[in-house]
Amino acid sequence: MPQAIATRASRYKFVLLISGLVLFRFLFSLTTEFWFPDQDVLQIYLIGLKSFTTHTYPFFGADLVYNGSQIPGALQGYLVSAGWYLLKIPEAPFIVLNLLLSLSLGLFAWYVSKCLQDVSRAFVWIYIFLIPWSVCFFTRIVNPSYVVVGAILFFVAFFESQPKLRIGALPEWLCFFLMGFAIFWIMQLHLSWVLLGPFTALAFWHLLRTKNIRKIGLLTVAFLAGCLTTGSLLLPTLLTYGLSPASSTGSNAPSTVGMVQINFENAKDLFRVISMYFAYGLFDVTRFIGAHTEERIQFLRDYWWAAPFTVFVAVAGVAQLLYLLFRIVRPQRDDIMLRYVRNAALGGLITLYVSSLFSKVRVPAHGAVLLFPLVTLFALQVFRQPMKKRWFRRTAYATLASAVVMYAAIAWKNYTTISMYRNRDVIVRALAQDDYTIVGRRRYEKGFNPKAVDSVMNSPTTLKH
């Protein structure tokens, strides 16, 4: 009986912990950037707001500002507008986004906990919910944030599709369904979906090696069913506008022409790509406290009470990266699971770097956030052995606690300067009058110069965001 009571109390504490993490992330989300200087957030918000207030089908999603086109598909518009069909308040999209993120991050944390049964379940959940990219970037109303939801579904399914990585967390048919579902989910949100190609091919290669015709047929059907589920939101756009670049919106909406071209200039970005890639799963904080050194120093001065904690987290992040790189070069040969996860992580890095050689622009820091699950699983696998040491555990929890203080300072800074609450009344009026133009207009309605955007996106300052 006492054992049952202790188990029940432990469950209540765990539920309370997760509830606290979800609430904290939601409150932080409300303070994230909404108004300028980054117009992307406002533009993504306007996709849903226009669809909702004009009662029209959102044929296209995010802008491809590099060539003046848009990503085809209605998913982005519906993801932003869904909340307004229940609550007609400006915060509705934030509620939906954080609900989706909490469920997907919860799935990922549950899966990682099963993989790392000798690591505290609470630590795994706290880590995944509180690392900087997860808090400071994914909680923003911007298309890569929604990409992460599909990316988690894809990579959990991919891991389970690999014979050497499979732990039996999901049935095989569901793995292939989720991979198809995730590909067409991300395809309507961001061009980075092409990075999933090698992983999908590897999953089918292992499937074909079974030479089991019945199994191959069933899992292929499951994959296609997943593709059709999310791909159905893309069909109306293709049926209405076809594959031609012309669009009634006045932009080259369905076209990605000009985005793919050989660009050997990006070959010199190897070390930048490596640091960017691994930052997704580590305590990378500098980019979130300022765009350049002067801004970061000013942040520490303005929020002196959070400065020691911020510096501590930054130092911990650098130490994490160095240790991670060391373990890539010298992996623990007796840890079979770590070796296979390391190979998968290296595969993601190689895919990202090679794809950058065929990109018109340098890959921005947020350009491959769909690889977040791959990097984070690898990082937690690497830290599994050190976590058995008391000093390391204490340092890890101190880093997480310090990060919360830093996030509080970032939220305080954002709330009155760039958050939605700088001018919330404008959105209230737009919803009340069913007129999205009160908040702003879409880029293609105002007209924009892809060449000007291209020069900005290739500048060193932009790439830090």
Name a few traits of the molecule:
two-stranded antiparallel ribbon, globular, mainly alpha, 465 residues, single chain, disordered C terminus, 21 helices
Summary of the model, kept short:
This protein has 465 residues and is mostly helical.
Q: What series of H and E elements makes up the topology?
A: HHEEHHHHHHHHHHHHHHHHHHH
The biggest sheet, with number of strands, parallel, antiparallel or mixed sense and barrel status, is: 2 strands, antiparallel
Over all CA atoms, what is the radius of gyration?
Answer: 22 Å
- End-to-end Cα distance, whole Å, is 54 Å
The oligomeric state of the chains shown is single chain
Taking all residues together, what is the mean pLDDT? Answer: 87
Which word captures the global form?
A: globular
Number of strands: 2
Helix content: 55-70%
Q: Would you identify the regions where 5 or more consecutive residues have pLDDT less than 50?
A: 245-257, 450-465
The main sheet orders its strands as: 1-2
Name the structural class: mainly alpha
Q: How many DSSP H or I helices?
A: 21
DSSP strand content: under 5%
